[in-house]
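Journal club prep — side note

Before the paper discussion, L.F. wants everyone to see what a predicted structure for a comparable chain looks like in C-alpha cell form. Sequence:
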Amino acid sequence: MLPKKYRLKNKAAFTATYRIKNSFHKGGVTLFAGIKKKEDIPTKVGFVVSKKTHKRAVKRNRLKRLMRESYRLILKSEKTYNSQEYLSLIFVGSSNALDKNFKEMQNIIKKLLEQI
C-alpha cells in the first residue's frame, strides 16, 4: 500500500488534475498528469476505476490493487522516470485492463510513466 504522503484524496485535487487535460493512454489504463511542481513535495497519486467499467466491486478493486502495487514497486525501485516532476497523477482503469495480470499491468504503468 502507498504511504499516506503519496495518496491523492480530496475531490478538488482530482478535478484540478483532470482539468489540466494532460493525459496518456496505454493498454486500458489512462494516466492524467497535473501541473509541474516547483517545490520539493511528494507527488500525489490517485487510482480510479469507474462503476461503468464493471458492475462488480471485486473486479474494480482488483484492478485498483494491481495499479497501486505496480506504482508502489516502481516508486520503491527509485526509477520513477518523470513522474516526480508533477504535483499529482491519476491512473484510470478501463474495461480493457480488467483481464490483465500483474506483470502486464506493471509493464503498462512503466510505459505510461516513460511517456510523461
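L.F.'s comment for the group: The chain has a mean pLDDT of 93. Keep this in mind when we get to the figures.
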